[in-house]
Amino acid sequence: MQDQIIKKIIHIFIAILITVLIATIIALLILKYNVEGEDNLPFELSKIMVISTAEGNEIESEQTENKWNLKLSQNNDIYLEISKNKNYEETEIIDKIIIDNLQIIEEPKIGTIKLYKPTEKEKITYENTEENEIKEKLEYTGKENTSIKNLEIANQGGLVLFRYALEDIGTYTSNKDEIKHDGTILKEQNIEYKDIQSKISFDISIKLKSDMIYTGTVTLDLPSGNIIEEGTSHYEKTDLKEIIFRRNLR
């Protein structure tokens, strides 16, 4: 009788031990996935490029004797390159690329933040108008070829882009014959680089025709350089190991 009780206790102990080991392994796998994300995505975020500058737009409602009467804005054009993973053996097709969940980690000291999609107009890429403003999210649809103006990306990879603009940062009045529409115009209005600095994050999701969605979070320091001195600055990064993509069930 006592032997049976001991055996029963041993069996219970072994069952508990196995359960704990299985739970521990599962927890470690979940932790590893949360830290490292997917290790073999069908498509990858292969490059991020940012071009930063500033511009002045005519204040049409105000009539002055000055040759130039401008409202100033600082623009950051963000380019995201999606590439097919050569090590992924199965065939997948991009359904959509989604940009959303913008977060302001460090706010600029001046100005109003707005996001813009590319304009449909010919000869220009952006026009900072209400009709082009991104309210909640930006979607590029997978097609045979990339068409930025139609918000389409080639279904085997291509470019998606949008603009982060800092508006209402000041005005500029002058009677000069010529002015530069770049970051140096801010210096003339005593706007300093630290006044327009910010840190943002946003999610980029790769949705496939198979309904699988992979989402990663991108963090950027803007502008891409000291445009007050440089006028226009450029940032490009291809080492993107810190951007972790995970499966998303939404």
Q: Describe the global form.
A: elongated
How many beta-strand segments?
12
> What fraction of residues sit in β-strands?
35-45%
- Low-pLDDT regions: none
Oligomerization: single chain
| Main beta sheet strand tally, sense and closure | 6 strands, antiparallel
Q: What is the overall pLDDT average?
A: 87
Helix/strand structural class:
alpha+beta
- Radius of gyration, rounded? 26 Å
- Helix and strand run: HEEEEEEEEHHEEHEE
What is the number of helices?
4
Alpha-carbon distance between the termini? 56 Å
Description:
The structure is a single chain. The protein is α+β, with helices and mostly antiparallel strands and 250 residues long. The chain contains four helices and twelve strands. Strands 1, 2, 4, 7, 8 and 11 form a six-stranded antiparallel beta sheet that branches.
Mind sketching the topology for me?
Elements: H1 2-36, E1 43-58, E2 68-84, E3 94-106, E4 112-116, E5 137-143, E6 152-154, E7 158-167, E8 171-174, H2 184-187, H3 193-196, E9 198-208, E10 213-222, H4 227-230, E11 233-237, E12 246-248
